[in-house]
Amino acid sequence: MKKELSAIEAKYEAQKIAFGPMFFQSVIALRDLGILEFINKHRKGVSIDTIVETLDVSEYGINLLIEAAAVIGVLEVENKVVKITKIGFFLLKDEMTRINVNFMNDVCYMGAKAMTDSIVKGKPEGLKVLGDWPTIYEGLSILPEPAKKSWFDFDHYYSDGAFPEALKIVFRNQPKLIFDVGGNTGKWSFACCAHDADVRIKILDLPVQLKVARQNATEKGLLDRIDFHAIDLLNTEQKIPQGPDVIWMSQFLDCFSKEEIVQILKNAYQAASETTTLYILEPFFDNQAYPAAEYSLVATSLYFTIMANGNSKMYSIDVMKELVKESGFEVVETYPLIGDSYHSILECRKRADV
Amino acid sequence: MKKELSAIEAKYEAQKIAFGPMFFQSVIALRDLGILEFINKHRKGVSIDTIVETLDVSEYGINLLIEAAAVIGVLEVENKVVKITKIGFFLLKDEMTRINVNFMNDVCYMGAKAMTDSIVKGKPEGLKVLGDWPTIYEGLSILPEPAKKSWFDFDHYYSDGAFPEALKIVFRNQPKLIFDVGGNTGKWSFACCAHDADVRIKILDLPVQLKVARQNATEKGLLDRIDFHAIDLLNTEQKIPQGPDVIWMSQFLDCFSKEEIVQILKNAYQAASETTTLYILEPFFDNQAYPAAEYSLVATSLYFTIMANGNSKMYSIDVMKELVKESGFEVVETYPLIGDSYHSILECRKRADV
Predict the structure, then answer these.
(1) Do B21 and A100 touch (CB under 8 A)?
(2) Which residues on chain B are in Cβ contact (under 8 Å) with A91?
(3) C-alpha to C-alpha distance for A38 and A232, rounded to whole angstroms
(4) Hey, where are the domains in chain A?
(5) CATH second-level architecture of A95-156?
(6) A229 with A236: CB under 8 angstroms?
(7) Which residue among A100, A120, A288, B340 is buried most deeply as judged by most CB within 10 Å?
(8) CATH topology classification for B7-93
(9) Which class is domain A160-288+310-350?
(10) Which chain A residue's Cα is nearest to B68?
(11) Complex-level ipTM
(12) Residue B146 to residues B106, B139, B151, B153, Cα–Cα distance (Å)
């Protein structure tokens, strides 16, 4: 929005925001009733009459949804012949867009109504529509469908793309012992074991998560190389053990507030030696190649507020660097947008001046 | 959306649709927590630190909502100084935009989730979140707040602007007897009585509506000039009486499906003489001066689907003219966008060739 808008343009943009939820739901209906797919199959266009004759949807519904889709640029209508636009095609076929749409509709839509409340209370008040948990993490394995599938699709999409490139960066100095802090189901640890035959891993996480990670490690026959350390990083009494070559935090710190991040990084600081490298992998919203990605990440911040925990968010790269510094580390190298992903890696060492 | 978008632009536009509801709710929070108003008062900009110090909202919430607002062009942030944009100003101060936002949030947001269902069933399935009525019309007087206020603000805003100019058009030929079909609370009839000292009016509507209209007419001392005719226009047995100089239908036909409109207009046809004029006042979505207005009217169609009655919509001017013709009338004059309103008037007479 760099150029100056006229009043007429600004008023139009304001209405797009005002009726955003209505048109969003009209796109869901257009897709779920098979209308968008049918139109997409007719690349040269298809008449509204043919759509009405072919699909088992009322003439009223078809006309209504096509008019709505035309207004937001998802379809083009000329002489009662309808074509899909590029925007419509992305909504129908692009993986990122599909995943975002389903995440919005199945996980976040109803809960988003509680945004003001969530900010006032500092709690994810929208989560109540899915279940009675203090944060979404307690409920992940028992989320109702389709929320569960849409949540995991979203999580998966925004994390796995970074791993191949990240492995190259982390193993540049052949670490022997890696602490996977917030290791969750163990995906990163298993990738490390596959990448390097000698590395040993310690997964640090809450007991409930470690149960899942241990189960997965058992199935993969990796219990001789991976061990587990139960820890609640919000409890300052509980210390990360000494001795790792690498401390790894992958999409972990965005689950916490700024104050909590400093506390966690200070805990890492007391565990680190002069030769320990701390790697922070995050999708920083201000460090993206495409506006679509920045848009998605800021929306993800809002998800944290209403559904996840009420107090975390995606961070800008500058804010994270400040928090790193405040904790006694310094960023010695930044690897922006590694591989085919939205993530950057901050490589950190203990500051010499602390 | 006339110009051809690049893939990157189209993907961005698709994400705007995908996260429309999330950003909508972030704007609601930004407004309801007083942040938008505070920023608006500082036209030259205000630092985020000052906002955090002044307002009783968490630093987390303020940063989050400002980041979200910047992404959608509601605020501009430069060197941690925030300014409101034109879009933000419209959201905060423009009457149409405010009314649309509140209508979306208070009346339609939760119900919109049921759009696919509403189309499949041909019923306003979203209405259930407000109350247990077959259509919203049965529930209007007992809607829960804030839905009730937002509904009436919306209805009021989109109808009253047309009346002054409409009176001039209708009274050009000094009608003695006007039938106000679907007269609702009587607002148009009272305006007619104020405009012309001699005109007599018959309000035709459902008994429950006539009760309100009669009460209002009594209070205004107009019972000697206005009478009432109870009629259910969806019942083909019930006929509009003969004899009016003018049959007036103001924002009435958009409450019905195309088939029902033809049925109602045929009923008007049997009541009309060669000298009767039928006036249809409607906001046609394809006949608007500004894209913001077209956008709002198409969104209103979607409201009819999910919340109002499940089968009506705003019409294009061509479709309405076809329905007029099919019913035995012809449009002898079109008055586009009369006065300071979104409405056009179709002046119709019985066709000579029927």
Answers:
(1) no
(2) 14, 17-18
(3) 51
(4) 7-93, 95-156, 160-288+310-350
(5) Up-down Bundle (1.20)
(6) no
(7) A100
(8) Arc Repressor Mutant, subunit A (1.10.10)
(9) alpha beta
(10) A298
(11) 0.91
(12) 6, 14, 9, 11
